[in-house]
Amino acid sequence: MSVVRRPRTAAISGTAASRRLPRLLPRPSTLLALLLYVAYAVHMTWPVVIHLGDTVYGAPGDLTGSIALLRETVEGHHNPFLPGTLHDFNAPEGLPIDWRFNLSQWPLIGVMYLLALVGGAAAAFSIATLLGYVGSGLAMFLLTRKLTGNAWAALIAGWAFAFYPFAELNGQGHNAHVHGWVFVLMAWRGLAVHEKPTIRNGVLLGLSAVLAMAFNPYFLLFGAVLLAVIAVWEIGYGWLNGRDRRRFTAAVLAVALGVGYAGVLAALTLGGTGSSPLREHSSQELTVYSARAIEYVMPPAGNLIVGDRTASYLASHLHGSNASENTLYLGVTMLLLALVGVVLAVRRPKASRQWYAVGLFLAIAVVAFVFSAPPKVNVGPLLLPTPSDLISHVTSTWRAYSRFVIIVMLGVSVLAGFGLAQLSARLGRVGGVALLAAATVLVPLDLINRQASGVISTLSDQPAYKLIENQPKGIVAQYPLYPNGYGDYGDIFFQGFHDMPVINGYAGTAQENRDVSLASLADPATVPALATLGVKYLVVTEVPTQPPVVAPGVPPAADVQFLGRAKYGGSTARVYRVTARPQPLVSATDGFGSVEGTAPNQAQWLMAPVGKLAVTAACQTCSGTLRFRLATMVQPRMVTIRDARGQVVWRRSVQPGVELKATVPIQISHGQGQLAVSTVPGIQEAPGPDPRSMSVMVIDLRARVVTP
Length: 708
Known about the structure:
Transmembrane segments: 29-50, 111-135, 147-167, 221-240, 252-272, 328-346, 355-373, 400-420, 427-445
Number of strands: 21
Largest sheet: 5 strands, antiparallel
Protein name: DUF6311 domain-containing protein
Strand content: 15-25%
Domain DUF6311: 123-441
Helix content: 40-55%
Mean pLDDT: 91
Shape: globular
Keywords: Membrane, Transmembrane, Transmembrane helix
Structural class: alpha+beta
CATH topology of the domain at 585-706: Jelly Rolls
Oligomer: single chain
């Protein structure tokens, strides 16, 4: 008897179609989770969602500085991934686009750039932040529900992962750190490799790793570590279960894709000419911005359960860091539920899918916790190195290892969801519902950080700028002039309101030392030097300053015209027009450290084998002299100064404890002159706790130019 088979292309029957149709639609629990996370994100950032262009979630600082850079990139029609110059910042030279840095986070920058084209830079940052919160919560919900089958437990795990204190705080300044969903996707693809160790799933795991590693420079490190844990766990499982080569092949393929991406990124960003995009940090910084175990279990000040009882302890144990980097609280409720999940999983057969998943996420959490530790830790009588110390011997570009809390929370959230689901199932229907209801209340009470909520900044024009809006166009210098790492970037953010170039925005450029040396307007040489740079207006904000920020003071009346005083933020600002005649400006640039002190004792250490002294003058071809004082550290040094052609123009021996006065000739062409300074012996480590290496100090640089 023959059997007639239907062709595979035959239409699906009505019954089969009706059974498959619901799979194309989101489950009700998915819609509920999405609505819950959207509602909470909107509530937490309110009223940003209804004022996208006029408000931002967070205080002025890194956030407003980043918004300003994105705004100028878009308004100047620049490609953020190619070299270019933002001419409105760091005037008159302009601010080079940090395209290498942008390329190292191309998915996030690309999305925000497109959003900014439509709605502006401020709206782009706000939308990206909201998407990060909602995406992280929803991704964790979907993964936990898939592992446990309990939508209620998954809902709690997703909320915790999206809105725990570190994420809540970092959405206010470093919005990349709220996009934990990329790591959830990685872990999910890792589980898919375990279920079906095929080449396809290995490729998908590798591609998910590439996405995570591409999202942010820190995510490059986090993604690499997470991929390594997933690969080692899968390979180890395959080895213990018949040496399954399919698992080895899939895992190695994923790792190869991740390593390949890192190699391509390095070739694109580290190759070519120009300064290295890698930021180097001292071992002291790595220690400061690493995690302490107590920070994972100590509620932050403002916790809804303990209130401010932990405030004094945390403030006295911040080890030089800040709340944004070291508010790492995971929640006692989440940790207890995670512990329950591990204990219950141990009692299951080791071959079960859930046993594998719990083991993987426990390994992820533990490894990330170890990576977040300081470079050296005490274990009994031993002082042992940690992964951050080992990595720093290769590169110290990553400073804040405390940010590994994102990966720790990834593991804890899944384990807590598993523990909650398993425990509620064992308690029966009534007991399980009671437990889930209690967790629904206790977990948010445990994790909500009252002091971090409601930090909203209104982006409005400042009345002080109206004093120059109708003046002829020219370069503006806004005071105080902040060293790199200080200030709230209001000088470049509010530039968009008066739309004139500013000398501000010099942080990290070759002009930084030059501009910071002009911090004191009370110095008679400052305003004429500003005139040489083309500065026409001074906006002097009357805000409190503390060293190393220099109080600007009042410029000499003969050098400026007072235009008025008006409100600026919570204080006022004085506005001047520059009337001084241009005078030469001299500064210690490449190879010299940051400016220390104030005139006439303003000084800079030589911190490289060769340093450069640069002169800017309002002449095409002229000559002059530099006058300054030299001091050496610890031991005598022979100081040699060469001109632009490499010829020695000055050489003297400097003795420790004695300042040597120097007068050095210089030739200026096209308004610029340059000298090179070197010493024998060269730089050495400073005595005491100062981590720097240096040789001689240049004090009170002055220039005199003779125009032929």
